[in-house]
Amino acid sequence: MYYPIFIDESMLRYRIPEMFWDDVNEKWILEEEPREKETILFPIDEQGQHRRWKWSIERLTDSPTEVKLDKDRSGQLSLYIKARQPEGVTPPTWWAKKEYSATDWGTREVKNLFGRFGDFDYPKAVGLVEDSIRVISPRSDDKIFDYFAGSGTTGHAVINLNREDGGNRKFILVEMAEYFDTVLLPRIKKVTFSPEWRNGKPRRMATPEEAKNSPRIVKVIRLESYEDSLNNITFDESAEQQTLQFDDYLLQYMLKWETRKSETLLNVKKMDNPFSYELYIHCNNDEAGGKTKSKVVDLPETFAYLLGLAVEKRLVLYDDDRRYLVHKGTTRNGRNTIVIWRTTEGWTEEDYKRER
After folding, report:
1. Please, is 282 exposed, middle or buried when counting C-beta atoms within 10 Å of its C-beta (0-12, 13-18, 19+)?
2. Which pairing describes strands 143-146 and 77-81: parallel, antiparallel, or unpaired?
3. 220 contacts 241 by C-beta, under 8 angstroms
4. pLDDT tens track of the chain, all 356 residues?
């Protein structure tokens, strides 16, 4: 599928030259030279990457009316295969730009970011998502949601659009596969650092204007899974076996007393050090071989969500060796609220009196 085509740029015509297949070297050997005004065209992209034609020589020869030779935006000649709709069907829209191709542009963008192929199969092209956002969300301060974020193309597109028009769009991406850590999150970090990448390396730093319109903070929220909850259930050694009862075909676990020390139900005795609260979390293959690992979880952040507290200000204070975290915000019913977190591990009565 990698073979030469002779083209006449002045007439915008092409032809298949005489050639034969070399089994030893596994390539096509030309048996003739280009005519006057003809040049040789190979499937080589803008990055110099040797690609392949979509059609074989036989099919290209048999379908001359289905192929068109034309110039792309950069002025380079390219072969285009005509796309036809079934008779009687009118498409509501027509998205035919070559920049929309996941196979070519989407894969190439991820390869430029990471310096290799294969990190993610068929990622969407950034240009396609950018134009989609332009159509459905013309305002520059909208929030863009993608509940199947994949490789993170939507976040990449939002960052590009903000840099382009100085907008303040925000994005929320949701993904549960392990490539969240291996592709999606690293991609957002890379694009935030630099708008242009090649072979896994930044081609330039973001300009001051681009940096101004880039993300300041990207918050990562990991939700506790059902399996994580089971991993963190522990029972009192002295507790009797838990009671099971059937009620309208629903299995109910009576664990109020037996699991009062379970981390998943919040072990209150460990609240004297809220910044070191740990749960057993299932990790991806790269992190812990696909096994469960004890990890510190963010209790203050979790409680803000459970309380419905929109945190407007966050302060970290230190008094000698003591750490304080202050969340100031508004609850859903409009109440101004301040939540103070502190470490009380090892405190004496005098410490508590001083706090008053």
Report:
1. middle
2. unpaired
3. no
4. 899 999 888 878 888 999 999 989 889 999 999 988 888 988 887 778 888 888 888 888 888 888 888 777 667 777 777 776 555 555 556 777 888 888 788 998 999 999 888 788 889 999 999 999 988 887 888 999 999 999 999 999 999 999 998 899 999 999 988 889 999 999 999 999 999 999 899 988 888 888 888 888 888 988 877 667 766 666 555 444 444 444 443 333 444 444 455 555 566 667 788 888 888 777 765 555 567 788 888 888 888 888 889 999 999 988 777 788 999 999 999 999 999 998 888 888 887 777 65
The burial of 207, by beta-carbon neighbours within 10 Å (0-12 exposed, 13-18 middle, 19 or more buried), is given as: exposed
What are the E-state strand segments in the chain? Answer: 5-8, 13-15, 19-22, 27-30, 38-41, 67-71, 77-81, 143-146, 170-173, 197-198, 201-202, 243-247, 250-254, 278-282, 292-296, 310-319, 322-330, 336-342
CA dist., res. 265 & res. 129, Å (int): 41
CA distances 65 to 68, 83, 153, 164, 280, Å, are 8, 12, 36, 40, 63
Return the amino acid letter for 5. I
Contacts of 324 (CB under 8 A, 6+ apart): 315, 316, 317, 318, 340, 341, 342
Give, to the nearest 10 degrees, the angle between helix 153-165 and helix 185-193.
Answer: 20
Residues 187, 189, 194, 199, CA torsion sign: negative
Q: How far is CA 102 from the centre of its chain?
A: 15
- Taking alpha carbons only, the member of 83, 77, 75 closest to residue 100 is 83
Angle, helices 107-114 vs 185-193, to 10°: value is 70
Strand partners, 271: none
| Residue of 44, 53, 42, 51 lying closest to 80 (CA atoms) | 53
- Contact between 28 and 40 (Cβ < 8 Å): no
pTM of the model: 0.59
SS3 category, 19: strand
| 196, 202 contact by CB (below 8 A) | yes
